[in-house]
From TrEMBL:
One of its GO terms (molecular function) is spermidine synthase activity. Residues 16-25 have a biased composition (Low complexity). Residues 40-271 form the PABS domain. One of its GO terms (biological process) is spermidine biosynthetic process. This is spermidine synthase. The active site is at residue 190. Its EC number is 2.5.1.16. It catalyses: S-adenosyl 3-(methylsulfanyl)propylamine + putrescine = S-methyl-5'-thioadenosine + spermidine + H(+). It comes from the Eukaryota. PANTHER family: SPERMIDINE SYNTHASE, SPERMIDINE/SPERMINE SYNTHASE. Belongs to the spermidine/spermine synthase family. Residues 1-14 have a biased composition (Basic and acidic residues).
Length: 351
């Protein structure tokens, strides 16, 4: 593919791929289509997933821009967050705050079970790896993003060369259907937002495939959107997970400044079998003698952050717990309507 070839050339020569920022007219067209754009000097993220708002970063230099068979890919140097990876107009990674997401989505599930050996990562960007035997399943643009990450995000691409990692570029959902029952201790679903092909990763059939692939007492952690923007999506995820996973179902969240609303959530579930208490990690990473010798110490995750991630604001707690406990959906929808009214009218109290 042209984008993959361009990324390879950039990696081999060390040169940046220069692309002139799009003009105001192009930016307007992008907004109408729900796709973000670079306007003179700035990148603004605009999407129907978060209508009426945008997050902007000042662009120092566009380093790479290309189109694969599936996505538009861009990397730029920002003034405040280092290099930024953008897919289809949506920020995926920045050098400054990627740790808050990457470390949480991996350590929340893996520190909740004893001695995980087989871990599966369904990763839309294909740049993530974890301990022991790891299988990374990417969708569509794995080849392009592998080359882009090697050039511009080498600290995230180190896993590609790890002998413990098997990288399969293809359809993660299709791969799941062929996984033998009870194969994995943990599954990590690092999906993009539920638009287009990624929508399937938020639906019940995928959760059923994940549950079948897990051993008894196995765990899954999936990206689960923002409580400020997508409580209705979170409701659906909770309902699906409660129907599929017979162990425990929990929602956690973390702060990521460059994600919409500045926060992102995770759904953590376990299959029937040995009990899993996600809120109290069984593995204390601070006590691991190897962690102190690591060449790349953790920047964000620790055991206190782990437990705190499950403490939710009252409005979100009511909605999620009512769905998790199987209460009538009217209760949840009334909370959602009240929350939206508060935002519209600027009220600070919820009834």
């Amino acid at each position: 593919m042209e984008a993959e070839a361009a990324a390879k050339r950039a990696r081999e020569t060390g040169d940046a791929v220069e692309v002139a920022p799009e003009g105001a007219a192009a930016a307007g067209a992008g907004e109408q289509a729900g796709i973000s754009a670079v306007i003179p000097g700035w990148f603004s993220e605009i999407s129907p997933m978060w209508p009426g708002e945008a997050h902007s970063l000042k662009v120092e230099k566009v380093l790479f821009q290309g189109k694969s068979d599936y996505q538009n890919v861009m990397v730029f140097q920002s003034s405040t967050y280092g290099k930024v990876l953008v897919l289809d107009g949506v920020i995926q990674v920045t050098e400054r705050d990627e740790c808050a997401y990457q470390e949480m989505i991996t350590h929340l599930p893996l520190c909740s079970i004893k001695d995980p050996k087989k871990v599966k990562v369904i990763d839309s960007t294909s740049i993530m790896a974890k301990d022991d035997q790891v299988l990374v399943i990417g969708g569509g643009d794995g080849g392009v993003l592998r080359e882009v990450s090697k050039q511009f995000f080498p600290h995230l691409a180190v896993g590609f060369e790890d002998p413990r990692v098997s990288l399969h570029i293809g359809d993660g959902v299709a791969f799941l259907k062929n996984v033998p029952e009870g194969t994995y201790d943990a599954v990590i679903v690092d999906s993009s937002d539920p638009i287009g092909p990624a929508q399937e990763l938020f639906e019940k059939p995928v959760f059923q495939s994940v549950a079948r692939a897990l051993r008894p007492g196995g765990v899954v952690c999936t990206q689960a959107e923002s409580i400020w923007l997508h409580i209705h999506i979170i409701e659906d995820i909770v309902v699906n997970c409660r129907q599929v996973f017979k162990g425990s179902v929990n929602y956690a969240w973390t702060t990521v400044p460059t994600y919409p609303s500045g926060v992102i959530g995770f759904m953590l579930c376990s299959t029937e079998g040995p009990a899993v208490d996600f809120q109290h990690p069984v593995y204390n990473i601070e006590e691991d003698e190897h962690s102190t010798k690591s060449k790349v110490p953790l920047k964000f995750y620790n055991s206190e952050i782990h437990s705190a991630a499950f403490c939710l604001p009252s409005f979100a707690k009511r909605v999620i717990e009512s769905k998790a406990n199987g209460y009538d959906s009217v209760v949840c929808l009334s909370c959602l309507v009240q929350l939206e009214n508060d935002f519209v009218h600027g009220n600070s109290q919820m009834s």
